[in-house]
């Protein structure tokens, strides 16, 4: 199976958990977009849901395909969020934010009773840290925040390049108007310690460690989709 077929396979397995009338958090990224395509097709057959998108990109895609949307202001509690991940470990701790939507993704996941991760086997790791950790920061005081992030990591024995995410010649700007630092710290043996350390840095808006948020992953590989429970 090629990469796209695996994403479709994972998305299809997650769709089986979507029930009529659900309030759905809808993730961001290429795997989440396969989910939206399948969801839209099911809706044409009669399924009724309302969705909260995790990014402007997802919102636009949902509108294009006719998936009805609401906001967390109107619908602050969701039944289920389906989203991709950049990597996941056996406990379903995740790194997310490769698509730059980590802040809204985390807010939406936290507002949901359940989160299902959709991914292919290439995203599975024993220990998080293979994928650079996205850290969303306020543009004000960028250099000072970057230095504080490095120091917070160093206090935990973590070090490595921290780079400002760029698009062409300008910093990448998130839907919330922030920048993203991609931190290549390598293996993260204690994600909880790093999470609270990063949260203590003024200027850090959010980071891409999703801990205790996902209850299930449907992971597509050559032999089909397998389910992992947290
Ligand atoms: C976006 C994300 C995505 O879920 C993550 O990057 C995975 O994307 P893809 O399904 O395209 O591999 O966190 O912020």
From TrEMBL:
Coiled coil: none annotated. The keyword Isomerase applies. Keywords: Isomerase. GO terms for biological process: pentose-phosphate shunt, non-oxidative branch. The keyword Hydrolase does not apply. Belongs to the ribose 5-phosphate isomerase family. Homodimer. HAMAP family: Rib_5P_isom_A. This is Ribose-5-phosphate isomerase A. It comes from Kumtagia ephedrae.
């Amino acid at each position: 199976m090629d990469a796209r077929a695996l994403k479709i396979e994972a998305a299809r397995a997650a769709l089986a958990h979507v029930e009529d009338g659900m309030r759905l958090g809808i993730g961001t990224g290429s795997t989440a977009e396969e989910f939206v395509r399948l969801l839209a097709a099911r809706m044409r057959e009669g399924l009724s849901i309302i969705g909260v998108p995790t990014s402007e990109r997802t919102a636009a895609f949902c509108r294009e395909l006719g998936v009805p949307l609401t906001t967390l202001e109107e619908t602050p509690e969701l039944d289920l969020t389906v989203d991709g991940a950049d990597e996941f470990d056996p406990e379903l701790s995740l790194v997310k934010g490769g698509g730059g939507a980590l802040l809204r993704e985390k807010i939406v996941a936290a507002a949901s009773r359940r989160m299902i991760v959709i991914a292919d086997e290439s995203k599975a790791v024993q220990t998080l840290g293979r994928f650079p950790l996205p850290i969303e920061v306020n543009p004000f005081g960028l250099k000072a925040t970057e230095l504080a992030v490095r120091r917070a990591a160093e206090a935990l024995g973590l070090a490595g390049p921290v780079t400002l995410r760029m698009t062409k010649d300008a910093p990448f700007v998130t839907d919330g108007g922030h920048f993203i630092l991609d931190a290549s710290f390598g293996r993260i043996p204690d994600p909880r310690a790093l999470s609270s350390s990063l949260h203590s840095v003024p200027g850090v808006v959010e980071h891409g460690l999703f801990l205790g948020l996902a209850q299930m992953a449907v992971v597509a590989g050559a032999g089909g989709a397998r389910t992992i429970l947290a």
